[in-house]
Write a structure and sequence with these properties.
There is one protein chain. By secondary structure, the chain is an all-beta fold. It has one domain: Methylamine Dehydrogenase, Chain H. Helices cover about 0% and strands about 40% of the residues. The protein contains one helix and 35 strands. A five-stranded mixed beta sheet has the order 16-17-18-19-23, with no helix packed on it. Strands 1-35-34-33 form a four-stranded antiparallel beta sheet, with no helix packed on it. It is globular, with a radius of gyration of 20 Å.
Length: about 450
């Protein structure tokens, strides 16, 4: 839907030599193009069997622990991880509310891997940082949560307090930035450390990172080729874990962010605030998504678990009144029922809202009408849904992938065990769907 709007940019990409792939067809950041989470005409199977090798293209072990998602450019696939010298890659999954942190103080290698997408062979690996982690992680988290981003010339990887790194696609370090100690933890217990999760994004010739932390939150823009800081905007915000996204259907292009005190839009060129709102959950962990020329934001925790659908012409403070569910710039909203960890999937005319306990609600995206409610599995869910060719894929933490039929009526098509814990959102291309599990990268294809 964006291709016709981006023809001039696509031509510029070709002129600059940043790759010949069609814009939007490369899964180049968290949840693919603009975090939308879908790719059609991909011919992905509905069923597979890892043990029997049915529709299993390849399976490659990745050492360490990481919840970052794989990203793809042409025949290369990238993923990050953090490898503990102690071998302590413990992970506590399931539905629980403990604020526990893992305090492994052994030396870690923070690494970026590049694999051959067709075979699963490791082409190169680079250690971005080696040392004791500067902050701790939650027992359900990892030290490699942010998903890398690429434009076909550079690959950006973010390790929170361990720094922001830029490589070329052959693994040569171009630049690195120390962004300081970034403690993302609960605002009610500022001494507790959970680790960063916001992924960097690339747009035009810049890298954008959102760093909502316990103290001195900010969002910043850097030159993609040099790492030079272009602007930095302080944010009056508690720690959050969602990634920014871009809206550019109209000028000026906006950087859209989630938050508790400050959901909103920033001018891409200057960093100036265009609009803002409050009224969300107090531990925002999801990424805003643009679809149907609207901005979809959900979060949860504490008193509220809203879904907001915002028009991109928003200006100023658009926060809803206590009893309001819409206003001039908010088309519709709900105060409770939005997902805590899962970025919403807007596929076709419908919004798929999956909560951590497997409760799925499907809305008409532009009106908020509920199509159905269904529990898809009695398991815990953290990763976000993706879609292809009329099918929606949801991965549980325990490693079961539920495939449902897209549309206004519920139909479960298959359940596929991965044989490993699955916390990361899968990636798609025209050949396969790629799952990052606790111990492996797995390619599923017909």
């Amino acid at each position: 839907m964006f291709l016709s709007l981006k023809s001039s940019i696509f031509c510029l990409i070709l002129v600059l030599g940043l790759g010949s792939s069609v814009l939007g067809q490369e899964w180049s950041q968290f949840r693919g193009y603009r975090a939308q989470g879908y790719l059609d005409n991909a011919n992905i199977p509905i069923k597979w069997d890892i043990e029997k090798g049915e529709n299993l293209k390849w399976k490659t072990a990745i050492p360490g622990l990481g919840h970052s998602c794989p990203v793809i450019w042409e025949d290369k696939l990238f993923v990050s991880t953090a490898i503990s010298a102690s071998g302590n890659d413990g992970l506590k999954i399931g539905l629980y509310g403990d604020i526990d942190e893992d305090t492994d103080e052994s030396i870690h290698q923070f690494k970026l891997y590049c694999l051959n997408k067709k075979t699963g062979d490791i082409l190169w690996e680079q250690i971005a940082y080696e040392g004791v982690p500067i902050t701790n992680r939650h027992t359900k988290s990892s030290h490699a949560n942010p998903t890398p981003a690429t434009n076909g010339k550079y690959i950006i990887v973010f390790f929170g307090s361990q720094g922001l790194y830029c490589y070329d696609l052959d693994g040569q370090l171009i630049w690195k930035k120390d962004l300081g100690r970034l403690n993302a933890g609960p605002f009610t217990n500022p001494e507790v450390e959970w680790g960063m999760a916001a992924s960097p994004i690339i747009y035009k010739d810049r890298v954008v990172v959102q760093c909502d932390v316990v103290e001195q939150s900010f969002i910043a823009s850097f030159d993609l080729s040099t790492g030079e800081e272009i602007w930095r905007q302080d944010r009056d915000e508690i720690a959050s874990w969602g990634s920014p996204t871009i809206y550019d259907n109209h000028e000026p292009a906006q950087i859209i962010v989630n938050g508790w005190k400050h959901m909103g839009g920033y001018d891409f060129e200057t960093g100036e605030i265009i609009w803002r709102m409050s009224g969300g959950g107090d531990a925002p962990s999801t990424t805003p998504v643009v679809a149907h020329d609207h901005i979809f934001i959900n979060n949860a925790h504490g008193r509220y678990s809203p879904i907001y659908v915002v028009t991109p012409t928003a200006k100023g403070d658009i926060t809803l009144g206590k009893e309001e569910t819409s206003n001039e710039f908010i088309s519709w909203s709900i105060k409770r029922g939005g997902a805590y960890m899962q970025t919403p999937l807007i596929y076709g005319d419908y919004l798929y809202n999956l909560r951590g306990n497997g409760a799925l609600t499907v809305f008409t995206a532009l009106t908020g009408e509920v199509m159905y409610k269904e529990t898809i599995g009695m398991q815990a869910f953290t990763s976000s849904g993706v879609a292809s060719d009329g099918k929606v894929y949801f991965s549980s933490e325990q490693g079961t992938v539920y495939v449902i039929k897209a549309g206004p009526e519920y139909e479960l098509l298959s359940k596929n065990p991965m044989g490993d814990i699955c916390m990361a959102t899968p990636a798609l291309d025209k050949e396969a769907i790629y799952f990052r599990t606790q111990h492996y990268l797995i390619a599923i294809a017909k």
